[in-house]
Specification:
Blueprint lengths: L3 E5 L3 H11 L5 E5 L2 H11 L3 E5 L7 H9 L9 E5 L4 H10 L3 E4 L4 H37 L7 H15 L4 H13 L9 H4 L7 H7 L2 H9 L9 H6 L20 H16 L10 H13 L5 H12 L3
Parallel strand pairs: 1-2, 1-3, 3-4, 4-5
């Protein structure tokens, strides 16, 4: 399918000029005359690029850009702001709204084509990366689906971890890593035989050796994705313990990344409060009491546990 470009301008002559320049290059061109119409068309057609006039009635281009860039589902679509004004103030406001590029009227055909091609190439690479991430998420969900007792486990870990990360004031990139890590933290279990993974009873020493390798395997599976750079420590270290008795690397204290320590608390809490073949689910209070004794043993981060316990006990 040819790339789709949404041209938004309140002047018909400008819209048709853009169409005349772009369609001969093989692009599909959609047109809107104001910001509200642009958002409506965007929702219906999901274009690959926006050429967005700044000065428009009802809703200006900067506000349209801001709304698209604030939405996780649309923020990766490139937006080029177009204006007859070259004022520094417009460019600053545009950058703050998340604009990817700027064009000044009157439009130069060669410049237009160069910028459109560059941004569409970037969008193609972004889409490819997103598809790779979706494959990993699907693989992680399929592993979870093997065990009827762990349904919803990944989503709950994403939720617990993201909320605790926000409570602690972590940067947004680490929050994103926690959200993704909740889904893929156990993806390495794809290499664990079902006879071991789904065994209802106690594992033998040899079976434990196999199981304890899943964080390493998971890190290896996800390592080709640069966008997972901050997720990899979560995958590898979410079974470490503060006193060094965890696996796979026996890290201690601050050697364990804070995002991994957060994921560990969420993982342990969810295991305690959900039904498993060998136990009934515990209440939140009972699970937190057990985790408190484990903190005293030196397993979990005491500061993070206080924040996690407060977060859970404040739930309505």
């Amino acid at each position: 399918m040819p790339p789709t470009i949404l041209v938004v301008d309140d002047e018909p002559a400008n819209r048709y000029l853009m169409e005349a320049l772009l369609e001969p290059q093989g692009y599909t061109v959609l047109m809107a005359e104001d910001g509200e119409g642009a958002l409506e068309l965007f929702g219906k057609h999901q274009p690959d690029l926006l050429l967005l006039d700044i000065m428009m009635p009802k809703m200006d281009g900067i506000e349209v850009c801001r709304r698209l860039k604030n939405n996780p589902d649309t923020r990766l679509t490139p937006v080029v702001l177009v204006s007859a004004l070259a004022a520094l103030d417009d460019r600053v406001r545009g950058l703050e709204a998340g604009a990817d590029d700027f064009l000044t009227k009157p439009i130069e055909r060669i410049e237009l084509m160069a910028r459109v091609r560059a941004l569409l190439n970037l969008k193609a690479h972004t889409d490819e990366l997103e598809r790779a991430e979706l494959v990993l998420f699907a693989l992680a969900q399929s592993i979870e689906g093997k065990d009827s007792y762990t349904g919803g486990h990944c989503d709950r870990l994403s939720n617990y971890s993201e909320r605790l990360g926000r409570r602690l004031g972590l940067p947004e990139d680490q929050i994103t890593a926690l959200r993704r890590g909740g889904i893929v933290h156990d993806i390495g279990k794809v290499a664990v035989p079902d006879a071991v993974l789904l065994k209802p009873g106690k594992l033998t020493d040899d079976e434990w050796k196999i199981m304890r390798q899943h964080p390493v395997v998971g890190e290896r599976i996800c390592s080709p994705l640069k966008s997972f750079r901050l997720v990899l420590p979560i995958i590898r270290h979410h079974h470490e313990k503060l006193n060094g008795s965890g696996y796979p690397d026996g890290l201690k204290g601050e050697q364990i990344p804070v995002t991994s320590r957060i994921m560990t608390l969420a993982d342990v809490f969810d295991a305690l409060t959900t039904e498993r073949p060998y136990k009934a689910p515990l209440t939140n209070g009972a699970a937190l009491d057990i985790m408190g004794t484990e903190v005293e043993k030196g397993w979990w981060d005491p500061h993070l546990f206080v924040e996690f316990r407060t977060m859970i006990m404040n739930e309505k």
